[in-house]
Amino acid sequence: MGALGQVVLWLQFCAPSPSEPSWPTLSPQPLVSLPPSLQQAPSPLRFPDLGFASCRSSSCAALTRAAYKLWLPNTDFDDASNWSQNQTPCAGAAVEFPAHKMVSVLVQARHSVSDLLLPLDGELILASGAAFSASVTTWDPNCSAGSPALFRDPDRFLWHDPSLWHSEDAVSGLFSVDAERVPCRHDDVVFPPATSFRVGLGPGARTVRSVSALGQTFTRDDDLAAFLASRAGRLRFHGPGALHVVPEACADPSGCVCGNDEELPWICAALLQPLGGRCPAVACRDALQPEGQCCDLCGAIISLTHGAAFDLEQYRARLLRTFLLPEYQRLQVAVSKVRRTQRVREAAGPGPDTEIQVVLAEAEPRAGGATRLAQDILADIAENGEALGILSATVRESGSPVMGGSAAGLDGPGHRAAIPGVVVAALLLAVLLAVFLVVLLRRARRLSRGEDAAPAPTGPPLGFDNPVFDSAGFADSKQRPPAPQPDAGTTSRSYFINPLFAGQEAEA
What we know:
Layout lengths: L2 H11 L43 H9 L2 E4 L21 E4 L5 E6 L2 E8 L3 E6 L4 E4 L14 E2 L14 E3 L10 H4 L6 E3 L8 E2 L4 E4 L1 E4 L2 E3 L2 H9 L1 H6 E2 L3 E4 L18 H9 L26 E8 L5 H11 L8 E9 L2 H7 L5 E9 L6 H20 L1 E8 L14 H41 L19 H5 L25 H6 L1
Parallel strand pairs: 1-9, 2-4, 2-7, 3-5, 4-6, 9-12, 10-14, 11-15
Antiparallel strand pairs: 1-8, 12-13, 16-18, 16-19, 17-18
């Protein structure tokens, strides 16, 4: 069967069954019979225009008032990043999809292919003006002959990967810690209706405020569960995890905790997978790790306790307007409510379970901007804290920059673990040096004992040099000095007898 016939047969096989609910824009209308023009190759295969349903005006207004996370990747046929060589299939090329993967693919342009290997289950959605035609001729000089275009694994996109989401509050100078870059408990989740997508839910369960997909907004958990169980939902969501919706907005002006604490290990694993699971190097000593962040960073962390008058959004806007001046343009600021850790509760004593975390992240630790900005913020709190609803503030700062701009380790714990390693190496070197000195001393003692045990020379002793009367002449001479003679002019016969020569003088 030719490529054109395979496409038609596959699309007929993948048409939704009558027993399943009809979700808007899930798949093309099934083909009941083939018109004669379609049976004559290489006439292009066409489908009706696919219109995407839009949310009701009230729902759209609610979405604009609430924080939302937008899903970024897609499984579109015309997206070069979805193909093995980062290039869409050339005209007349062979196209191959993963055989054992479920996938929904949106096609938005005309394509001519020589061969088309389809998966066991999936769907092609042809937008207005899109078409496939069969061709065995390749006329694109940039195409490599004989190499099929491989569609990349559609299961590679994970819900827990922060790099795959875009937040509405992404403003220059502000950032979110890693746990809050993934949809939080009170966020609205939006999957663009003009693209095809596939999401791996991963382990665990997650709850959001609403889910918008395929032109519908799900705010009831039963409706979302029915969609996920349908064939359209299975084509777009996979994995062992669960997804729930609870239409409850954050009503606390001081902010709400994100609620991704339990999912942080999976978030970090997905984020660091391209780096081999290890954090990048930091350029300072005693780096800090904010709550909800996967890796250490350089800068400062200000922890605030607040009263009923505190407003998180107003304070975030105040920081952005008042303090993020050109002199601090290399700083990034994150402001959010987090749970107080056990270490903080033990150090600060009884108090609320949550606090406001202000993270000042440095791009270049040598500049010292985070320290200056932290002092400016503390001074502002001392002056206006009561009006802002802030009760107290504490600050932690990272250490001095690492010389050369690179850290000794690949992550914070690794960097701290390198310090005892250096100490152990120094101690080992000291032990080796001590052993070497002991061996040298023992050899010196053995040589000294050998000289002491050497046999004395035979013959009469040569005497010794008296240091009082020693001179160069005596030192050079090998003869013994003559014994003193009694003075002829005196009757005294007392004189000094050297005990070394006492025997010879007595015989004399």
